[in-house]
Amino acid sequence: MTKPTLPDMIGEHLAKAPQKAPGTPRAPALDADSQLARMVTRFAPQTRGPAAWTAGSIQLLGLDDLHRELGPVWEKFADTIHLAIENILSQSIGPKDVFARLGDDRYMVIFEKTDDDHAAEIMTQVTDHLRTTLLGENGAELIRVRSAIGRVRKSAEGDVMFAEGKDDAPFSVDAAPKREAYESVYAPIWNARHEVMNGYAYVPCIIRADGTERYEHDVLPADHTAADSLELDLKHLTHSTGTMADLYKNKFTVQLVSQIHYESLDSAASREAVLRICREIPEHLRKFLMVQITGLPEHTPVTTFLQRVAPLKPFFGMLTVRAPSLKTEIGYFRDLGISSITYRLPQNADPVKTVERFKALVEAGKAARILVSAEYVPTRAQAQALQEAGVWFITGKCLGPTQDYPRNMRRCTLDNIAEEAARSR
Prior knowledge:
This protein is an alpha/beta fold. It is 36% helix and 21% strand. Strand 12 (318-322), helix 9 (330-336) and strand 13 form a beta-alpha-beta unit. The relative contact order is 0.11.
């Protein structure tokens, strides 16, 4: 029996969702903004809540990951998703609590009470209800909540002001959001064509107490900026270069991949910051270092891409690009002059359809002289199928856990990987 895809599961669950409660006002839609202060000052309660009120907790409900997972299918389900969310919020929060929609994939909930535990309990109930309604038992990590404790009040001029904690000073729009601590790990890369574990991707990682995991630029806050991405990329590029120097000195033969987010290259100044580090890479190490461009928007103009990315090529043994989605065709990358492409498997993707899609991509890649690789492959069975489809490089949980330090290059089959996993239990 074919496992249903995430969009299929959402459609099935939303079909059973209760309709909007009669008389419940629709949440006002606001433009999304990266700073909490700006969000709050643009928000004024209208049909819900008193004319003047205070709050002890502002909760941000994020659908960013769900939006990204659904990709183009999001537009099909967006109205129903928002209807379900507003339904659940209306039934869960108090009569003087307020919620508002921020852009296309976030909600803000402002509680009247100053009881932080109460706010956290309500939002846990809301997110649990949402996950059950939208996703069934799957996709717990696709809906996130972030909180900011403080007070909200109306000024004499009618503006809504926010202050953190017990301090009456206004919330600064330049205040940095609280960030979860992350660690940097090495994720194995398997050359499926030659059955060699020949490299590692050096990526940031957060593993939460509930077992959910976040990798790469997803460790940054939902309202992160291009400067935050750049800071992360520069740190990892510098560290991977130093690690490669140590490995080379100790006669290790292995390749390391650093990631650079496309938005980290959006200005001349940020590109120069990246190139400044690249120029420091010793000539003899460059063939062992690879760089992957992530976060490429669909339909990026060729001239814009080349302006931002082409200057990086001389400093790395290979430059690869992650496709915006599994639907992105190979021909697009041929026009960009890229010879290696990675496709990230969507969570809960149908294994059979995914393999068929990769077969088509590999065939198109052969004609265009482009290597096709698969990322975030969950199982060895799927890795085996992708290997048989002709995929070049494979990463994901199918290869076992991430590591604190890279190992040497070695020959290994999927059976060897399975045997190692069994011995480690």
